[in-house]
Amino acid sequence: MFVFAAGACRRDGGGEPLPPGDYTPRSADHDLSFPAHKRDRIRGDALRRAQVWLPPSTPIPAADFTQNPSGPDGFGPDAVVPCKFELKPSEGRTPKFQCVVAGGQVLKVKYGRNNPETFGEVAATRLVSALGFGADRMYVVGKVRCYGCPAFPYPKVEIFDALRTDWSRAIEFEMAVIERRLPGQEIEGGWGWPELAAIDATAGGATRAEVDALRLLAVFLNNWDAKPVNHRLLCAGGTARCEQPLAYMQDLGQTFGPRSIDLGGWTRTPIWADVATCRVSMRGLPWDGATFEEGTISEEGRLFLAGLLRQLTEPQVRGLFVGARFTDFFRNRGADVAAWTRTFLSRVAQIADRAPCPE
């Protein structure tokens, strides 16, 4: 039996039993909490020393955007992933749920043909990561077979999904992606764009060029949902003093245009709010870009990002949209991969092929 709703193709799991294993969810508390009298000092010190960019492990011209991220804990694009529904409140407004695989690891599943995060977050995280900036890992899979899932899982109001839970029954989600966070522990609270001014290169933090390149990349993507909760300050090493802090854009689902996966809007939204001064802004985009404040990009920052983007080939850019299945998004009728590729390269040219930014 097939069920069509929220743009996702769901069907009954066919009566196959849940594979054997321990599905007791393991603790997944990623946040570092500190006593109130220490929190501001520790967080401020970590932010001052934060990196925003590291040399990518794979050379940019060799990045394959048609494939899922590599690694021992990954998933193949045709994988059928069985899991047990985890009733937990969801943040945001787009369809998602938590699911436990054998061994107790809790996965975040995003689904739906009319859910922009099912597509945009895949493309954006692959691009951002390949360029050397921090990003979570998103896996396109064949289907997620969720045992105990309601037909339309989205535990915004837990009691509704609790009443509909049937552990003997599986629902399959065929338009789904699985999110894995970057390893490390996070300092709770995230960060807002004005706070990146505290990063100090002399204390071991990112350079001005790297911070400006990250800001310009956010504009390139139209990453307008820039609330602090959608950004992470990660302790990638030891946690006693938050060793190796990394500041990165975490939730990249609302990207590629003012309406998200919006080719016309992405094409019409220029990189520069004022070309002559290299001023950037997200005013006019949803939420006015949230914490993203209007500002100017340094010439070093422009050149830094331009040097990264210029290493991408046209076939790679096409692969970015093919691998993220952009043409399957319900609003993408008539917007083919070639059109997305042209707009992407046009936006690169707006950054790279212009007069230097004034000092």
Which keywords apply here?
four-stranded mixed β-sheet; alpha+beta; 18% strand; 25% helix; 8 helices
- Based on CA inertia axes, which overall geometry fits? globular
Structural class: alpha+beta
Distance, first to last CA: 63 Å
Mean pLDDT rating = 90
Strand content: 15-25%
Largest sheet: 9 strands, mixed
Radius of gyration: 21 Å
General description of the model:
With 359 residues, the chain is an alpha+beta fold. The chain has a domain of 143 residues. Helix content is 25%, strand content 18%. The chain contains 8 helices and 15 strands. It starts with a strand and ends in a 7-residue tail after the last helix.
Please outline the helices and strands:
Layout: E1 2-5, E2 8-12, E3 31-32, H1 36-48, E4 80-86, E5 96-100, E6 106-111, H2 117-131, E7 137-140, E8 143-147, H3 158-163, E9 170-173, E10 176-180, E11 185-187, H4 208-221, E12 231-235, E13 245-249, H5 263-268, E14 279-280, E15 295-296, H6 299-309, H7 314-323, H8 337-352
Parallel strand pairs: 3-11, 4-8
Antiparallel strand pairs: 1-2, 2-9, 4-5, 5-6, 6-10, 7-10, 8-9, 11-12, 12-13, 14-15
Summarize the model shown.
Helices cover 25% and strands 18% of the residues. By secondary structure, it is α+β, with helices and mostly antiparallel strands.
